[in-house]
Amino acid sequence: MDLSNTSKTLENSLITVSGIDQLHFVSGVLGESCMNVTYTHQSICALKGSTVDISCFYTHPSWYNVTEVSWFSKWETGVTNDLSQDPEYADRVKYHRQTDKDSTLKITDLRERDSTEYKFRFKAVNAEWGYTFSGTTLSVTGLQVEVTPATVTEGQRVTLACGTICTLTDNPNPSYIWYKKGQRLTNQNNSLILNPVSSEDAGRYSCAVEGFEDLHSPEETLTVKYGPKNTRASIHLSDEIVEGSSVTLTCISDANPPVDKYTWYKKIGGHYQSFSYGNTELQHVFSAIQSSDNGEYYCEAPNEMGTDRSESINIDVKYGPKNPSVSVSPSGEIVEGSSVTLTCSSDANPPVQNYTWYKKNVTSPILSGQNYNITTISSEYSGHYYCEARNKIASENSTALMLIVAVKQTSNKTAAVGIIVVVLVLILCLSGLMWFRKKASKSTSGTIETRDTADDGQGDSSPMYDNVLGMEMQQRQRPPSSQDDVHYTTIHFSRSKNQDELCTPPSSTLL
Hints:
The protein is mainly beta. The chain has five domains: about 5-140, Immunoglobulins (Immunoglobulin-like); about 140-220, Sandwich (Immunoglobulin-like); about 225-315, Sandwich (Immunoglobulin-like), CATH 2.60.40; about 320-405, Immunoglobulins (Immunoglobulin-like), CATH 2.60.40.10; about 410-510, no CATH class. Helix content is about 15%, strand content about 45%. A six-stranded antiparallel beta sheet has the order 1-2-3-5-8-7, with helices on one face. The protein is rod-shaped. It starts with a helix and ends with a strand. This is B-cell receptor CD22.
């Protein structure tokens, strides 16, 4: 028997007992020497991003001089390159030893693809061994957040649990820290309980193991279904609203699921009426807004959970003067000498700031102010008048008003009364004269006695004419020689009551 060949065969024979790599060397009668590799852990669970130490102890005959130690992975490919030379582990692995019989593989910044089996091998001058046997299996796990129930409605109880796919070898019962949108919350154990959950609880949550606060789990979004709330209506405008400009109304509401239809309402006659029902856009656009669009508005936002409405907003459309007009007071015929006021009125927003008065065929304005007062009007004021109304938006002229001033005349009633009085006076005077002549004619054809008797016997003789009759009789009784003398006699008229009221003739003299 060739003992040397037998010895080499046995030298490379490896027996695995209880996870220990053993090498038995038999050299004839020299007895048996044992070499083995013992791993500290058969499996390790480590946190993604952390650092892990994989260690082992090995033995060999004292006369073996160990020249090299190394660690390997990727056994399934049959490639056994040293990890320190593997580009995937570059700058992330280191070998450490405390004695000549131990070795530790340190891997930093663990990644999930680092999950595999790791084995140790050492070399001596005449042999190398250890890599063909079971090593240490590494599992790299990340933290995960689980939400229960998966679909959450406002008011329910919700539980958020933080965990790993395997039990951490170095920390089997970890304490967890919770974060919402990156902000740390009060420490909880494995679970974060929200009871009852509200819309404010919705958001992104993550967790970390205490002591590894910089190693967060991926964020898990907590979705809470709720009806619309905080609905707001707004106007997109950098300056005041001017008639003819484009104005956009926007309705915003916080809701889940989101609002997909909006309705706008306008206050008309004390009641709100919809004018844009079920609009799929959150905006309503007035492409050329008008003064008639002035008023109060609000929007309504519904979803499957409920409906909410905004507060009212006011649209105040500014516009220039509209339909200026001129009115006159008092109304009716305008007579010379009377007082007249012309007033200019116009609808405008903001209100008219300046009124200016013009008269046709007069180049310059005649007055400023809303009212044009004429205290004593004359015919020269007749003509066409109009006003100009102006605010900061625009100006507008009124239509012309024709002013006609009538000449002042005596009223028909006064003229009629005057004519009647004059006619009556003339009639009375004429009647009196006729009566006087008749009386004088009767006196000349009768005797003095008859006259005296008539005078004494009748009370209808008027003393008004006594001096006249006496004068005529004296003239008739004079001798002819005395006719050359001229005598002047004054005749006094006695006025009766009726004559005093209607006719008062002047004093007369007879020659």
